[in-house]
């Protein structure tokens, strides 16, 4: 499943290509699984909207939408992205699931199998949602009728030291399981939990509530560094993930432990081990992580 760096990469790519564009036509497929909001409701809500901004919230991509008479891109788009603009009237929310792709294409580009949404834009581009396994979800939120989309957990790229430590205080579960809890930290998944724990020198089965303040701070900084570097490299393409252009990411070549079972640790040459933590395959170095 795409994690924070992959979702951030897709959101940035879509934003760069469609910000300020107007939706002129909407087509949705017949499968019900992708739709958290009924397809007909989404189609009515999206038609005629201007895309003010596209950004990531947790593992979700959020398209901020205004009415057709909104100002051109620039101030309105910036305000919508930062949450300060009153122009945004609705949101289109995309969760990529296991195999979902949100692509920006030309209108005449070949239609991929398992395409569930085509958003035709005034520029001649199309925004397409493709998902072979149909675990992804599409939703529409009318901001004039309720609150906008919000992730339940803190964003690991912006959380401070005290707030981060407080998330794990007294928790009687493995630190790897705690990192995967989206109600605590939004966007961290299997890849970046393993990689961050390795860089912080912490074993994944250690109880979260027993980590020292110094260990938690090492983990916070390692997590932030790993996520930012992964974003710079376009994310990790270990399965179906591609960015908004259909291009693969490159961070997988820098994985230190994830899916490297039996291979030598890049630091000490000890073979990487794989165990299960909270039902998830977990990779670590028994020498470097304590």
Features:
290 residues; alpha+beta; N-terminal domain of MutM-like DNA repair proteins; Helicase, Ruva Protein, domain 3; four-stranded antiparallel β-sheet; 7 helices; elongated
How is the secondary structure organized here?
Blueprint: H1 4-18, E1 23-28, H2 39-46, E2 50-57, E3 60-66, H3 75-82, E4 90-95, E5 101-106, E6 115-121, E7 125-130, E8 137-142, H4 161-168, H5 175-180, H6 190-200, H7 213-232, E9 273-277, E10 280-284
Antiparallel strand pairs: 1-6, 2-3, 3-4, 4-8, 5-7, 6-7, 9-10
Helix pairs in contact: 1-7, 6-7
Question: Short description, anyone?
Answer:
The protein has about 290 residues and is an alpha+beta fold. The chain contains seven helices and ten strands.
Explain the overall architecture:
Mean pLDDT is 92; it is low at 71-85. The protein has seven helices and ten strands. Helix 6 packs across helix 7. The protein folds into two domains: 4-142, N-terminal domain of MutM-like DNA repair proteins, CATH 3.20.190; 161-284, Helicase, Ruva Protein, domain 3, CATH 1.10.8.50. Strand 6 and strand 7 form a beta hairpin. A four-stranded antiparallel beta sheet has the order 1-6-7-5, covered by helices on one side. It starts with a helix and ends in a 6-residue tail after the last strand. With 290 residues, the protein is α+β, with helices and mostly antiparallel strands.
């Amino acid at each position: 499943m795409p994690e924070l760096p992959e979702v951030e990469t897709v959101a940035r790519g879509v934003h760069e290509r469609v910000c300020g564009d107007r939706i002129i036509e909407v087509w949705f497929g017949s499968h019900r699984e992708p739709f958290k909001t009924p397809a007909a409701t989404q189609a009515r809500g999206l038609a005629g909207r201007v895309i003010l901004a596209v950004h990531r919230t947790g593992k979700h991509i959020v398209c901020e939408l205004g009415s057709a008479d909104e100002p051109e891109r620039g101030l309105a788009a910036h305000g919508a992205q930062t949450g300060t603009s009153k122009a945004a009237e609705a949101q289109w929310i995309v969760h990529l699931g296991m195999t979902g792709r949100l692509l920006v294409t030309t209108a005449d580009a070949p239609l991929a199998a398992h395409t569930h949404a085509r958003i035709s834009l005034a520029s001649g581009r199309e925004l397409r949602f493709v998902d072979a396994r149909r675990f992804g979800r599409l939703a529409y939120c009318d901001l004039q009728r309720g609150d906008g989309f919000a992730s339940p957990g803190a964003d690991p790229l912006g959380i401070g030291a005290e707030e981060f430590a407080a998330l794990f205080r007294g928790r009687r579960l493995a630190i790897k399981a705690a990192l995967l809890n989206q109600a605590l930290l939004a966007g961290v998944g299997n890849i970046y939990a393993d990689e961050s724990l390795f860089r912080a020198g912490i074993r994944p089965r250690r109880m979260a509530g027993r980590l020292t303040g110094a260990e938690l701070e090492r983990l916070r900084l390692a997590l932030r560094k790993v996520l930012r570097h992964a974003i710079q490299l376009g994310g990790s393409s270990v399965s179906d993930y591609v960015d908004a252009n259909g291009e693969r990411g490159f961070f997988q070549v820098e994985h230190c432990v994830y899916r490297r079972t039996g291979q030598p640790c890049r630091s000490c040459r000890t073979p990487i081990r794989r165990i299960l933590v909270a039902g998830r395959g977990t990779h670590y170095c028994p020498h470097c992580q304590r």
